[in-house]
Design goal:
mainly alpha
Protein backbone atom coordinates (compact mmCIF):
# COMPACT_ATOMS: atom_id res chain seq x y z
CA UNK A 1 0.00 0.00 0.00
CA UNK A 2 1.38 3.36 -1.04
CA UNK A 3 0.81 6.36 1.23
CA UNK A 4 -0.51 9.28 -0.81
CA UNK A 5 0.20 12.04 1.73
CA UNK A 6 2.15 11.57 4.95
CA UNK A 7 1.10 15.00 6.24
CA UNK A 8 -2.62 14.24 5.92
CA UNK A 9 -2.07 10.84 7.52
CA UNK A 10 -0.19 12.34 10.49
CA UNK A 11 -2.65 15.20 11.05
CA UNK A 12 -5.56 12.78 10.75
CA UNK A 13 -4.07 10.36 13.27
CA UNK A 14 -3.42 13.15 15.79
CA UNK A 15 -6.92 14.58 15.30
CA UNK A 16 -8.53 11.15 15.68
CA UNK A 17 -6.56 10.44 18.87
CA UNK A 18 -7.52 13.84 20.30
CA UNK A 19 -11.14 13.00 19.54
CA UNK A 20 -10.78 9.74 21.48
CA UNK A 21 -9.29 11.66 24.42
CA UNK A 22 -12.16 14.20 24.27
CA UNK A 23 -14.66 11.34 24.17
CA UNK A 24 -13.26 9.82 27.37
CA UNK A 25 -13.34 13.25 29.04
CA UNK A 26 -17.05 13.58 28.32
CA UNK A 27 -17.15 16.01 25.40
CA UNK A 28 -19.48 14.11 23.09
CA UNK A 29 -20.19 16.58 20.24
CA UNK A 30 -16.69 17.88 19.72
CA UNK A 31 -15.16 14.42 20.22
CA UNK A 32 -17.24 12.75 17.54
CA UNK A 33 -16.60 15.63 15.16
CA UNK A 34 -12.84 15.43 15.74
CA UNK A 35 -12.89 11.66 15.22
CA UNK A 36 -14.83 11.96 11.95
CA UNK A 37 -12.50 14.66 10.61
CA UNK A 38 -9.46 12.64 11.73
CA UNK A 39 -10.76 9.50 10.03
CA UNK A 40 -11.44 11.47 6.84
CA UNK A 41 -7.90 12.86 6.87
CA UNK A 42 -6.47 9.39 7.42
CA UNK A 43 -8.47 8.09 4.45
CA UNK A 44 -7.36 11.07 2.38
CA UNK A 45 -3.73 10.43 3.31
CA UNK A 46 -3.93 6.77 2.34
CA UNK A 47 -6.20 6.98 -0.68
CA UNK A 48 -5.82 10.51 -2.03
CA UNK A 49 -7.44 11.61 -5.25
CA UNK A 50 -10.01 14.11 -6.42
CA UNK A 51 -13.17 12.43 -5.15
CA UNK A 52 -11.79 11.88 -1.64
CA UNK A 53 -10.67 15.52 -1.51
CA UNK A 54 -14.08 16.76 -2.65
CA UNK A 55 -15.88 14.64 -0.06
CA UNK A 56 -13.50 15.84 2.66
CA UNK A 57 -13.92 19.48 1.61
CA UNK A 58 -17.70 19.32 1.68
CA UNK A 59 -17.62 17.51 5.03
CA UNK A 60 -15.33 20.18 6.45
CA UNK A 61 -17.69 22.94 5.30
CA UNK A 62 -20.66 21.17 6.92
CA UNK A 63 -18.72 20.61 10.16
CA UNK A 64 -17.62 24.25 10.10
CA UNK A 65 -21.22 25.45 9.78
CA UNK A 66 -22.15 23.29 12.77
CA UNK A 67 -19.27 24.73 14.80
CA UNK A 68 -20.04 28.33 13.84
CA UNK A 69 -23.67 27.89 14.91
CA UNK A 70 -22.56 26.34 18.19
CA UNK A 71 -20.03 29.14 18.72
CA UNK A 72 -22.64 31.84 18.12
CA UNK A 73 -24.81 30.33 20.86
CA UNK A 74 -21.82 30.40 23.22
CA UNK A 75 -20.97 34.08 22.57
CA UNK A 76 -23.00 35.53 25.49
CA UNK A 77 -21.09 33.43 28.03
CA UNK A 78 -17.61 33.63 26.51
CA UNK A 79 -14.78 35.79 27.79
CA UNK A 80 -12.63 37.95 25.50
CA UNK A 81 -9.37 36.19 26.36
CA UNK A 82 -7.05 34.55 23.85
CA UNK A 83 -7.67 31.11 25.33
CA UNK A 84 -11.42 31.50 24.92
CA UNK A 85 -11.12 32.83 21.39
CA UNK A 86 -8.88 29.97 20.25
CA UNK A 87 -10.66 27.32 22.29
CA UNK A 88 -14.28 27.93 21.40
CA UNK A 89 -16.01 26.44 18.36
CA UNK A 90 -16.62 29.75 16.57
CA UNK A 91 -12.94 30.14 15.67
CA UNK A 92 -12.57 26.50 14.65
CA UNK A 93 -15.80 26.69 12.66
CA UNK A 94 -14.47 29.50 10.48
CA UNK A 95 -11.14 27.65 10.24
CA UNK A 96 -12.96 24.49 9.10
CA UNK A 97 -15.12 26.32 6.55
CA UNK A 98 -12.11 28.01 4.97
CA UNK A 99 -10.15 24.74 4.98
CA UNK A 100 -13.06 22.96 3.31
CA UNK A 101 -13.29 25.60 0.61
CA UNK A 102 -9.55 25.29 0.07
CA UNK A 103 -9.87 21.49 -0.26
CA UNK A 104 -12.71 21.82 -2.77
CA UNK A 105 -10.72 24.27 -4.91
CA UNK A 106 -7.61 22.08 -4.64
CA UNK A 107 -9.59 19.09 -5.93
CA UNK A 108 -9.85 20.88 -9.28
CA UNK A 109 -6.16 21.85 -9.33
CA UNK A 110 -4.01 20.50 -12.15
CA UNK A 111 -1.67 18.77 -9.68
CA UNK A 112 -4.49 16.43 -8.60
CA UNK A 113 -5.60 15.47 -12.10
CA UNK A 114 -2.12 14.40 -13.15
CA UNK A 115 -1.66 17.13 -15.74
CA UNK A 116 1.55 19.06 -15.58
CA UNK A 117 1.57 22.81 -15.86
CA UNK A 118 3.33 24.16 -18.93
CA UNK A 119 6.36 26.29 -17.99
CA UNK A 120 6.05 29.97 -18.86
CA UNK A 121 8.90 29.90 -21.41
CA UNK A 122 7.16 27.11 -23.36
CA UNK A 123 3.68 28.68 -23.44
CA UNK A 124 4.51 30.89 -26.40
CA UNK A 125 5.54 27.83 -28.40
CA UNK A 126 2.33 25.98 -27.54
CA UNK A 127 0.08 28.88 -28.56
CA UNK A 128 1.35 28.95 -32.14
Amino acid sequence: MKIYSWIDLLIGAVTFLLGVVFLFQGGMGMAVLAMVIGAALIYLGIRGGRIALLIFGHGAVIAGCYLVTWGIYLLPVSKPTMAHILGLPLFWGFFSILGGICAIYHAFCSCIGGRRAVPAKNRANDAS
